[in-house]
Amino acid sequence: MEQRRLGRLEHQSSVLIYGAAALGDVSQDVADRSIQEALDGEINHFDVAASYGDAELRLGPWMPEIRDRIFLATKTGHRDRESAWREIHASLERLQTDRVDLLQLHAIGDLAELDPATGPGGALEAAIRALDEGLVGAIGVTGHGHQAPATHLEALRRYPFATVLTPLNPVLWRDESYRADYQALVGEVRRQDVGLMTIKAVSRRNWPDGADHAYTTWYEPYDQQAHITAAVSWVLGHDEVTGIPTAGDVGLLGMMLEAERNRVSPDQAERQLASDVDYSSPFIAMPF
Question: Which domain holds residue 140?
């Protein structure tokens, strides 16, 4: 699998990042098979969060075996210092490790989330303390929604986050306002040498009302190989992107691995996805 430099952290991360949200509500046996599938596919960067159900508990038993050969990231969704501090320690306990490589302030998608997290007594203070005490190797920021790129640009003005995880896919790119915000973020990412990861590569749309939710993702994902290959190919055609977390359902991992191995040109990918009349932003009506 291709690897790309994760900004100034210098880690050579696999372009597919294991999205451990997929482990939130599965048995240990299912989790073990999925984690092994990721390792066999040469994924070396694992991304989890305290809020992902039992995901940290499912990853924890693997740490004695793989901790020294993966880049391990988790997230705190708390906005205040004390709650975030407690959650950082709880994550380390669940993950059965004394240190993660990256702690991310999670779901910072607008200024209403950014302000308390980065203000006095905010979660960022807990993250900095964890960094100073060697519990985390670096601090990043993540977020969903149409305001995420602009919000993450503002975040980088307030603190030198080492990584950003922000949404990108062709249907978002077609929105002129979103594209302008994303390009402005890329400019600052390059200036500060930040690792830029992107989310929602294989989202198709929000789940339609009354639809059977066939996957554990909160959005309806693409689940045909041609569409997944196109979506992965298009995003990885952006050289500023260091990696894409895999979708939040263990059943989609194999198709994403196949997509990375057999990428098509960005133009071909765009044509493939443009043929889907139902392709739309997953952020029109987020369920949270």
Answer: 3-274
Beta partners for residue 206, in sequence order = 219
Q: Which two tokens stand for residue 55?
A: 């995901």
Q: In this structure, which long-range contacts are made by residues 113-116, counting pairs with CB atoms below 8 Å and at least 24 apart in sequence? A: 113/79, 113/143, 113/151, 114/151, 114/154, 114/155, 114/158, 116/79, 116/80
- Helix (H) or strand (E) holding 136, with range, is none
Q: Is residue 32 part of a domain?
A: yes
pLDDT (average), residues 39-65? 98
Answer whether residue 235 is part of any domain.
Answer: yes
241 in any annotated domain: yes
Q: How far apart are CA 288 and CA 217, in angstroms?
A: 13
Token digits of residue 43? 């994924």
Q: What is the pTM of this model?
A: 0.97
Partners of residue 46 on adjacent β-strands: 18, 72
CB neighbours of residue 235 within 10 Å:
23
Taking every pair of Cα atoms in the chain, the longest distance, rounded to a whole number of angstroms, is 51
Phi-psi region of 217 (alpha: psi -120 to 50; beta: other; left: phi over 0): beta
CATH number at residue 104: 3.20.20.100
pLDDT on residue 283: 96
- Looking at residue 104, its pLDDT comes to 99
Question: For the residues 238-259, what does the mean pLDDT come to?
Answer: 98
Whether residue 37 is contained in a domain is answered as yes
Q: How far apart are the first and last CA of the chain?
A: 34
Residue length, the chain? Answer: 288
